[in-house]
Structure formats: structure tokens, C-alpha cells
Amino acid sequence: MKFGENEKLVFPVDESNKSRLAGKLRYWWCWFAASGLLLFVGAPAVLFLWIINRRLWLYPVALWGAKTWLQACRAKVEVKGLENLSDDEQYVFISNHRSYLDTATLFRYAGKRIGLVAKKELLKAPVLGQAMHFVNIIAIDRSNPERARASMSKAREVMRNGYSFGVFAEGTRAMPGELLPFKKGAFHLALQTGRPIVPVAIKNSDAMMGKRTGVAHPGTVEMTLLPPIDTKEYSESNLIELLDKTRTAIAKELQRSAH
Hints:
- The chain is α/β, with parallel strands linked by helices.
- It has a single domain, classed as Glycerol-3-phosphate (1)-acyltransferase, CATH 3.40.1130.
- It has helices at residues 20-51, 58-72, 101-109, 128-134, 145-160, 185-193, 205-209, 239-258; strands at residues 9-10, 75-80, 92-95, 114-119, 137-140, 164-168, 178-179, 197-203, 219-225.
- β4 (114-119), α4 (128-134) and β5 form a beta-alpha-beta unit.
């Protein structure tokens, strides 16, 4: 398998022998739980903190919400590599993306106070769209270059305020077992802020709640934070080398778990 090219990779996926009916019921339970958290916790918190002008106080509520939703979906999280992070450093976390579970996992368990890049469609969701602004989740409109640049400018501002940033570099969820080509935005962000990149490999979430499966199963999401990559020796002229190095590190970790 060639890792040095920014092309789709496919890793072996074990066939599930779990009940599809139970999986469908749990899938809808996960979304019912998410709706309940947004309606009964998120909405009152957003309104109250907006009134008293303390928007950043929503961050710990969001951390609790992410953890609670994962628990409701019976998704445990195992994190490896936290020892690779320095307490006084900010990072650009660049991760693969195969499941809705990944966003909550990275946000809650990265070991840093982070912002995230999300799809612009999420801004239209009631409560969620407003809450995203409060906790530095930035929507990217890739169809509009000017708006995309403005979003990256906002991300740089968030990092200047002491946050790290998390980006799913594929730009969308991959199908189970896949690693899609990486987009360049996260690497521009790392170069423009001078921050190290932490490659992140998220495993098993596709077996638990994979794209287009319509089912959710209990299990353990495995998130590995790989050694940071110093961006100081890179520039816009050799950005592709940085992209390839990051993607190769993630691909090798995903391949290790597939064997």
C-alpha cells in the first residue's frame, strides 16, 4: 500500500455479526439523546450565557455534553499519546474522520482546549449553530473561497487566544475502512500560525457508527495522538511534503490496527 500519495486508501474491515435491528434502534437513540441534550441543556445554557455576556462559559458545558452523548451511545474512548503533548504548547490536530462519534471524541479527549472546523450546514441547526460560535467551532464554506479564507482567519485568531485547533482534513466522513485524500486548509493554518501538527488516528468508530450504515453499536473508540510534527522547516512551497508526512503517519497507524 502506497502511503506517500494523497489518494484514497482502503483498509480491511471486519464484517459485523451484531444485530442490525438493535443497531438501528441504538442509532436512533443516539440522535434522540443528542436532541435532548441540545434542547434541555444546550438551549437554556446558550440563552443564559448570551444574556449575561459570558459565552466562553459554555465550553465546559460543551465538554460535558460531548462526554455524555458518547456515554449515551455506549461509546467508550481510549486515548493514547497524551504524553506527546506539552502543557505550554498549542497544536493543530489533524485527524481522519469516519463517524459522527469522531467529533465528540476529538473535542472532549484531545487533552487541549480546542476549536474545531465543521461543515457550514451545521450552522443552520437550531441551538447547535448558535452554540458552535460560543465554543470556537468554525464552519468552512469550501464552495466560496472568500468565506473559506475568512474562516481560516477566524481560526488563526482563536489560536492567538490560546486555543489549539482540530481539523478533519478529509473534509467529510469517509466510508468504513477508508482514508480519503487530505485537503490543504489545515496545513495552511499550521504554517500561518507556526504551530506543530499532531497527526490523530481515530479507529473503530466506523465499526460502531459508520457512514451510511444507519446503525450504531457499543464499543471503544481508539484515538491515538501521534508525535507532533514541527512546521518550522516547512513553507507554502513545500506544503505538500508536510501534508504527505502527516497523512502517512495517520495511515500507518490505521494500518497497524487493521492487522
